[in-house]
Amino acid sequence: MGVNIQWFPGHMAKAIRQFEENVSLVDIVFEILDARIPLSSMNPEVKRISGDKPHLYIMTKRDLADEKQTREWLEYFDSIGQPAMAVDAKTKFGTNSVLSKINPILKDKLAREEAKGMKSRPIRAVSVGVPNVGKSTVLNRLVNRRAAQVGNRPGVTKGQQWLKSSEKLELLDTPGILWPKFQSQEIANKLALTGAIKESVYSSDDIALYALSQFRTSLHQGLAERYRLSESDFELSDVDLLLKITKQVGMQDDYMRASDRLIQDARSGKLGGFTLDSVADLEESDNADY
Ligand code: GDP
């Protein structure tokens, strides 16, 4: 039942070690979060490893999220003094928007360096995030790869490069990939539905049923339109609703295939924007770490 995930301790230790090394080279860490699950896509280790280095949340997939909840998350982060921005990383996103967020955070540090007679230099950053959250997309938007290689610098692990985003910003070319947290089945369901974990480790029908339990209210209209459902269909149990959708998409009784279709439709925004982690949930829980 549900999502069964094994992260190999050796891989985790290596990923952490590499990220720790990278953090020591930068001024700021960009933690990439999925705007649909800002909390569930956070890695609990990132803040600890980043130590006193500033930390910017870049919430991707804003175009696929519920806009009202995205604004609530931004307000929440602002209220606790945590720099954050939400973007559609595929289109409306670039270096200037990042610089306008990080300049105020780092200007004192850079000014202090200049006062000591050090040469003016670009801000250096590294990204980190769970699989599939949009790390490469963010990097590619910030960097023109062909023109971007700044060359090897001391301290950078062999094979890694600084990429130039502008005269004022350089990024390490290898984002850290850390595992998501699996404290509960609910978090695992959210990660599966949004695509942060591989299809081979969960059963599509479990995730489709989870999606229906979430969306029958929040994406009622999207579901009704996409699968030509009537109001009375929404009185069915999740299982019967899934069977009904299976018929509606012409898959007879192949509910596994219909589940895959439903998951794909949700991920690509065809049912409407959704957010599965709410600020209210956070405030209710004792999750004081965030
Ligand atoms: P990575 O594994 O973290 O490097 O993730 P990728 O950058 O490869 O992105 C994973 C998928 O999410 C790709 O299909 C991207 O096109 C898509 N993606 C990334 N950012 C966004 C976004 O802001 N909006 C939408 N709609 N898709 C995005």
TrEMBL record:
Pfam families linked to this entry: MMR_HSR1 (PF01926)
Keywords of the record: Cytoplasm, GTP-binding, Nucleotide-binding
Gene Ontology terms: cellular component: cytoplasm
One annotated GO molecular function: GTP binding
GO biological process, one term: translation
Domain of life according to the entry: Bacteria
Cited InterPro entries: G_CP_dom, GTP-bd, GTP-bd_ortho_bundle_sf, GTP-bd_ribosome_bgen, GTPase_MTG1, P-loop_NTPase
Domain CP-type G: 12-180
Chief place of localization: cytoplasm
Localisation per UniProt entry: Cytoplasm
Binding site residues for GTP: N132, V133, G134, K135, S136, T137, G176
PANTHER family reported in the protein's UniProt record: MITOCHONDRIAL RIBOSOME-ASSOCIATED GTPASE 1 (PTHR45782)
Function: Required for a late step of 50S ribosomal subunit assembly. Has GTPase activity.
UniProt record similarity statement: Belongs to the TRAFAC class YlqF/YawG GTPase family. MTG1 subfamily.
Protein name from the UniProt record: Ribosome biogenesis GTPase A
Protein's organism: Lentilactobacillus curieae
Lineage: Bacteria, Bacillati, Bacillota, Bacilli, Lactobacillales
